[in-house]
Design goal:
The protein folds into 2 domains: about 80 residues, no CATH class; about 180 residues, Hypothetical protein af1432. It is built from 15 helices and no strands. Helix 8 crosses helix 9, helix 9 runs antiparallel to helix 10 and helix 13 crosses helix 14.
């Protein structure tokens, strides 16, 4: 798992480096020929309005820009990681769909609040549950049983993780994401997604966007979620400045966005 995630970290770092050239960025994405082919396929889809206009990676980078291509590459790499690993009776596809939902929802929240972090919000939501896979690799069946119990009983996963293993998937990810060379603010946001109030000040808003996205996406008893609804949810949304009409608009936009994105990523 770590080799591809190190590649992802390098892609994200170059995308944020104002001194890096387009050629340097393209070469890094192209280090994986399979990833490069998939990036071109997605770039050339109706999702970006580029049907038939992009036939190679260099053109995708030139037309869409490094941030957009980094988002595409991140999405493809995370999908591959998650879909390939079931955690007990929890299918990898369930975790993947939850992560995609969370990323898109966090992006919509950032847009609704006119925050200058739409891309970062998407990536943070998309990546926030990679710690699940890492803990499952470390502990195997006992961890799978813990995840299954969280889903069956609809209780927050972090409490069960702390009780059984002395760590949570968020705090595990805080360490591992640094190993994978993810940007520091992103590491902190995904590491504290289950307790955004504890995040360092510079990443607290981004961590809170992930938590808010969980709240808006959540449907008790449906799909996978590492954080079922809690009594504090309403205050988290109101503290961000989201009113019920905002939440309804975001939910409606999310449904439409998923209709656009899901078929292309299958």
């Amino acid at each position: 798992m770590s080799i591809e995630l190190v590649l992802l970290g390098e892609i994200l770092a170059i995308a944020r480096d104002s001194d890096a050239s387009l050629d340097e960025f393209g070469q890094k994405v192209g280090a994986s020929p399979q990833l490069a082919r998939e990036v071109v396929r997605v770039s050339n889809s109706a999702l970006y309005g580029m049907e038939g206009k992009i036939n190679r990676l260099e053109r995708a980078v030139l037309i869409l820009g490094t941030r957009a291509v980094a988002e595409i590459a991140s999405t493809l790499l995370v999908a591959k990681q998650m879909r390939g690993m079931n955690i007990g009776r929890v299918a990898g596809d369930q975790i993947w769909i939850h992560s995609l939902h969370t990323g898109l929802c966090a992006q919509l929240i950032a847009r609704c609040l006119s925050l200058p972090s739409e891309s970062e919000a998407y990536l943070a939501g998309l990546l926030h549950d990679l710690g699940l896979l890492d803990l499952h690799e470390a502990y195997g069946e006992p961890y799978a049983n813990t995840v299954e119990r969280s889903q069956t009983e609809q209780v927050p996963l972090i409490g069960l993780e702390e009780e059984a293993f002395g760590e949570t998937h968020g705090k595990r990810l805080l360490i591992r994401a640094s190993d994978w060379q993810f940007p520091q603010q992103l590491c902190e946001a995904i590491g504290y997604h289950d307790s955004p109030q504890e995040a360092p000040e510079g990443s607290r808003t981004l961590a809170t966007l992930i938590r808010a996205a969980h709240i808006i996406v959540a449907e008790p008893g449906k799909g996978f979620s590492d954080m079922p609804p809690t009594p504090e949810d309403e205050s988290i949304l109101s503290d961000l400045g989201l009113v019920p009409d905002d939440v309804s608009d975001i939910q409606a936009l999310l449904i439409e966005r998923m209709k656009e994105v899901a078929p292309i990523l299958r």
